[in-house]
Structure formats: structure tokens, C-alpha cells
Design goal:
Length: about 450
């Protein structure tokens, strides 16, 4: 199947007069890039509290995503929302090797760093310069869409500087390369094999599939964030506490900006945050046309221009005030949201996460007196109680029902919910494709099998 996909990509890029001159062999390029891309599975424990007529239960929900290797020693970049709230994270290399991963740090924006311990050096990606990206450039995305690892899709850069309203710093690359749930955190490559974006979000309709509108964090932004995470454990963006909006001709006229300057890009100050360093130095109604060497196109440009400045330094703000141009020097201080969050700040997730049903389709609970009474479980029966079964799961297909008791995994007795999942995880690490469970129900004991993944 992979050969067919790669061949189809090569044909797609070769077809038509616009690409006939393209000398890139996508089969070779893809083969070279695949080892640098990993699949990520994170597990979240979902606690359902006891309610009237229902026992408390713990289920596991898997979130699938993608990452890519940025250091031969096992440092991996991905999206923050792929690992947010995870109880455990595993990384699967392109050769099928699965490794436990540690989340090192998460950012104010949607980037996270993971660490695995490989037996041998891993092949890191090569970074590209996202400032050189142009509309119409061909690109390929590699990822784990819907759990199909090492999937390759192709397309072009559809647009730049997209604001999808997920943070004050949005500056996304838009691509029509198909990106689906599970691609999050994966690389967007140019045809030189360089990462020019981190696939992060998608616009979808209906069933949530790709409609050709995907968004990637530019590689230069990702590299800046990663470098800050490595150095500080957080992004530590610069901040002055000024709130601004884009300057329009009407606003410029109302603010008294000289007529000859009214085509100038800029932002107008709407308010100042208590504790910000701009208090007393800027005023509502000030028009900021530059921060250092950067010109102001809109509020995002302002936030990004201040955010990249080092805390503890100062910057000169080029300001129009009462019809006169003045230079205002403002100290750059720590962003309190970033300080409060420590290892990253929770933000609205940028895509509807791809989640499996509760792991194996099972909701389990310890056999408490209430559970025994509710499901009429005999006093002599030990194990863990099945209190919920996803109707679309393999567990349901295998005939497991609420009220059943799982007593063994393979030959090992199940003594608690935690012990059950440890036995399941052990079987997965041993690459067993099926689990053998001893289940006791109203008619007695029986062995059932379930796929391990």
C-alpha cells in the first residue's frame, strides 16, 4: 500500500505542465523523510464519578497524533494538544518500535517537546526557513491520520499569515495537503525535504474529515518556541501589557493622524493592563507604527514583535500621539499568563481531537459493595467489574456486558483496575496482537479475546 501511495504522489507532482519540470523524485524524498516522523499515542484517564444507580468508573481514552525527531538523542516535537492531560505517552518510530515518552515542556502556543530513550541515534529532520514560503509552493505532509501511521499527502501552500483565533500570535500557513485528525504535530515539508511548518489544525465539516483547509505553525515560529522551551522550560515571551487593535483609515482620521501618514500601517492602543510596563508610558489612543525595527500591520504583528523580545531588555516604540511622532522606550517584562502556567498555558485546542472510544471499549471499576449489589456479583468473585461497554467496540462484539467481571489477563489474575491496565500494557509491549481475558458473567466463566490495540 505504501508503494502505491508513493507512486501516486510521484505521478501527481509530475502531471501537468506546471509540474512537468519538477526534478524531485518523491519516492526517494519520502523514503528519506519517513524515519524522522513518529506516531504518538497519549492516554487520558477519564474518571466518571458515582451517580445514583451508577458506580464510579475509570476509562482510558487514547488521543492519536504525530511528531518529528529534532535531535538524534530522542528529542521530539509535536503539538501541545496531542499530549495535554496525558497519563502516559508512547512514540512509535517508522520501523514499528514503540518507546515510552516523557513530556518535557509545553508552550503558551501549541508546541510541546517529548523525550524518548532510543537504543541508537535517531534521524532528525532538517529545518527550513518559513520566511521563504510562498503561495503555490508544493509541499508534502507526513503523519498519523486516523491512526494510519506513516501516511503521506501532497498539496500546495494555499495562503500565509492566517489568523484562526487560537492565540494572540496566530500566523499560520494554510495548505490544501490533506490533513486529518491524527496529523497534529506532524511536519509539513518542502520539496527539499525541509520542515517549513508543524501541522496543527484543520477546517472540517460533517464527519470531521479533510476538506483541503489545513493550518501549520511556521517553522521559524516553532524553532523559536522550541529554543525557548529548551532554555527556560517555557516560552518566556516579552510583554508590556498593552492591548491594541488594527489601525484603519477611519480610526486614523479620528485619532488625528496627519493626513500624509494615514496610509501607514499601525495599531491603536485600546487599553493597558495593570502591572504592565507600558502603564504611564503609553496611553489609550496612541498609534504605534513600529516596535524596534518591526512595522505594525495588525494586533498579531504587535504581539509577535513584542513576544520575541527578551525579558529584561527595553524596546523603542514609534508612536503618534496628539499629531506628533514620539519615541517611547518601554521595559520588556515577563508575561504573567506564561509565568502562572509554568510549563505552558492551557488554551482552546485547535482541532477536534481524534479519540478512540474508551480503551478496548471498556469502563472498569473495583468491586465495591455497591457494585456487587448493583450487578448482583457473588461475594466469592474477585477481579474488576465492567460497568460500561462502548456499543461500537470490539469488547461489545465479543459479548462483554456491564456486570461482567474480568478475572484474568492471559494467565495473570486481575486484582485491581490499575493491575488490569498494567497487564494490558505489558501485552502490548510484548507485541501481542490479541488479549486473552477470563470473564465471569451470569452464566459462569468464559475466555474471550480482544485485539490488543
Amino acid at each position: 500500500m505504501r508503494r502505491i501511495l508513493i507512486a501516486a504522489l510521484a505521478l501527481a507532482f509530475a502531471a501537468g505542465p506546471a509540474r512537468a519540470h519538477d526534478p524531485v523524485d518523491l519516492t526517494e524524498l519520502t523514503a528519506r523523510l519517513l524515519p524522522s516522523v513518529v506516531s504518538i499515542a497519549s492516554v487520558r484517564l477519564i474518571e466518571t464519578p458515582a451517580q445514583k444507580g451508577q458506580a464510579a468508573a475509570t476509562s482510558r481514552r487514547r488521543v492519536m497524533g504525530t511528531g518529528f525527531i529534532i535531535d538524534a538523542n530522542g528529542l521530539i516535537a509535536t503539538n501541545k494538544h496531542v499530549v495535554e492531560g496525558a497519563a502516559e505517552v508512547t512514540v512509535t518510530l517508522s520501523n514499528g518500535t514503540t518507546l515510552a515518552a516523557t513530556v518535557l515542556s509545553k508552550a503558551l502556543v501549541d508546541i510541546a517537546l517529548l523525550q524518548v530513550q532510543p537504543d541508537q541515534p535517531l534521524p532528525p529532520v532538517k529545518w527550513g526557513d518559513s520566511n521563504t514560503v510562498k503561495q503555490g509552493m508544493p509541499v508534502i505532509a507526513i503523519g498519523n491520520p486516523l491512526g494510519y501511521s506513516s501516511s503521506v499527502t501532497s498539496g500546495i501552500i494555499s495562503a500565509l499569515e492566517r489568523d484562526i483565533r487560537t492565540s494572540p500570535f496566530d500566523d499560520y500557513i494554510q495548505t490544501d495537503a490533506p490533513i486529518n485528525q491524527g496529523n497534529s504535530g506532524g511536519p509539513l515539508f518542502n520539496l527539499q525535504g525541509e520542515v517549513i511548518g508543524v501541522n496543527t489544525a484543520l477546517q472540517s465539516q460533517g464527519d470531521g474529515g479533510s476538506i483541503g483547509i489545513g493550518f501549520s505553525i511556521p517553522s521559524n515560529d516553532a524553532r523559536f518556541v522550541i529554543a525557548r522551551l529548551q532554555k527556560f522550560g517555557r516560552v518566556k515571551p516579552g510583554w508590556v501589557g498593552a492591548r491594541v487593535q488594527k489601525l484603519t483609515p477611519l480610526l486614523a482620521d479620528g485619532a488625528g493622524l496627519p493626513r500624509k501618514e494615514r496610509n501607514t500601517d499601525g495599531v491603536i492602543v485600546t487599553g493597558l493592563d495593570i502591572g504592565g510596563s507600558a502603564v504611564g508610558l503609553l496611553r489609550p489612543g496612541d498609534i504605534i507604527v513600529g516596535v524596534g525595527d518591526a512595522t505594525m500591520k495588525d494586533a498579531r504583528t504587535f504581539n509577535r514583535s513584542v513576544g520575541i523580545l527578551d525579558v529584561g531588555t527595553s524596546a523603542t516604540f514609534d508612536v503618534w500621539r496628539n499629531g506628533a511622532r514620539v519615541a517611547v522606550t518601554i521595559p520588556i517584562i515577563d508575561n504573567p499568563d506564561d509565568v502562572k502556567a509554568g510549563q505552558g498555558k492551557t488554551m482552546a485546542e485547535m482541532e477536534a481531537e481524534f479519540t478512540d472510544p474508551p480503551d478496548l471499549g471498556l469502563g472498569l471499576a473495583p468491586i465495591t459493595p455497591d457494585v456487587r449489589t448493583r450487578f448482583d456479583i457473588e461475594a466469592s468473585v474477585d477481579g474488576v467489574a465492567v460497568v460500561a461497554v462502548d456499543t461500537h467496540s470490539r469488547a461489545s462484539e465479543a459479548g462483554i456486558e456491564p456486570g461482567d467481571v474480568i478475572q484474568r489477563v492471559m494467565t495473570e489474575p486481575v486484582t485491581s483496575v490499575r493491575a488490569f491496565w498494567l497487564l494490558v500494557d505489558s501485552a502490548r509491549r510484548d507485541r501481542r496482537t490479541r488479549l486473552l481475558l477470563l470473564v465471569r458473567g451470569p452464566t459462569g466463566e468464559r475466555w474471550v479475546t480482544l485485539p490488543s490495540a
